[in-house]
Amino acid sequence: MRAALGLGTSALTEGGLEGAGRDARRLLAHAAGIAPDRVMLHLEDELSEEDERRFWAHVQARLDRRPVAQIIGARLFFGRNFIVTEDVLDPRPETETLIVEALGDGFDQVLDLGTGSGCILLTLLAERPGATGIGADISAAALEVARRNADALDVAPRAALVQSDWFDAVGGVFDLIVSNPPYIAEAEMSALAPELAFEPRQALTDGADGLSAYRTIAAGAPAHLAPGGRLMVEIGWRQGDAVAAMFRSAGLVDVQIRTDLDGRDRVVMGRMSA
C-alpha cells in the first residue's frame, strides 16, 4: 500500500490538485475498504490486484476533477457520514456554521428548504432527538439521497421529505426554517472550480443574480413561522447586507449576520415577532 499511496499522491500533485496527499489517502482507504484514519497503520499491507485497480480508477476520476465525496460516495459533516451522489451538493464545512447557529436555541418543528442530501435537516434532528422536521426539494433524485441518509442516521421516522418548489407543497408552521439555497450568480459560474461541474447546477445558481431564492424564502417564511420562530439561511460571503434587508422588509426582527470560521459572512438569521 505504501507504494500505491506514494504514486497516487505524486499523480495528483502533478495533476495540479491541492491536498493531493489527503485525497490519495481517502481514495486508497475506500479502495481497500479501510477507515481513512487507519491508512497509515496499513501501509505495509499488500494491496490486492482488485483494490489496486479500484484505487487507480479513483485517482483518474479525481484527476478528471470529480469531487472525492462523489468518488467514494460519502462526506463527513458535523461528525456524521452522509451519502453523496451527483444529484446533491457535496456538504461543505462552512455549512456547519448554520448548524451551530440553529442549535443555539430550542426548536421542535424544523423546515429545511432545498434539503438536497438532507445534511442540514438530518443533522439537526440527530442533535435534537425530540424534534421533527420536513425537508423540501424540487429534485426527486435529491430526495431519494436524503431518504437514504435519514435511514442511515436512524431519524427517518421524524423526517418527512416532500417534493416542493420552495414553499409550494409545504403546509403548517415551524419554529425553525433553514435553507442553503443556490446563491451563486450566473455571471460567476464560469470562474468556479472545475469540481463544481459535477454537482447539480440548479443547487448552485439561480441562473440570475444569486439572490432569487432569498427573495422567495423571505417572502414566504412569515406565513410558515410560528410566533418567535427563526429563519436562518446560508449565504455567499458578499450577500449578507442584501439578504438581511430582505428579512427586515418581510417583517422579521432581530436580524443578524453570522460569520464562518474564516471570518466571512455565512448565515443571515431573523425571528418572527412573538
* Main structural class: alpha/beta
Number of strands: 9
Tell me the Rg in angstroms: 20 Å
* Succession of helices and strands: HHHHEEHEHEHEEHEHEE
Report the total helices. Answer: 9
In helices, the fraction of residues equals 25-40%
Inertia-based shape? elongated
Q: Mean of residue pLDDT?
A: 96
The N- and C-terminal alpha carbons lie at a distance of 60 Å
Sequence of strands across the biggest β-sheet: 5-4-3-6-7-9-8
Unreliable runs: none
In brief:
The protein is built from 9 helices and 9 strands. The protein is of the alpha/beta class and 274 residues long. α1 runs parallel beside α3 and α8 packs parallel to α9 (240-249).
Q: What can you see in these coordinates?
A:
The protein is an alpha/beta fold. It is 34% helix and 20% strand. It is built from nine helices and nine strands. The chain has helices spanning 2-14, 20-32, 49-63, 68-72, 96-102, 119-127, 140-152, 212-220, 240-249, and strands at 74-77, 80-83, 109-113, 132-137, 159-163, 174-179, 225-234, 253-259, 265-271. The strands form two sheets. The chain has a seven-stranded mixed sheet with strand order 5-4-3-6-7-9-8, with helices on both faces. Strand 3, helix 6 (119-127) and strand 4 form a beta-alpha-beta unit. It starts with a helix and ends with a strand.
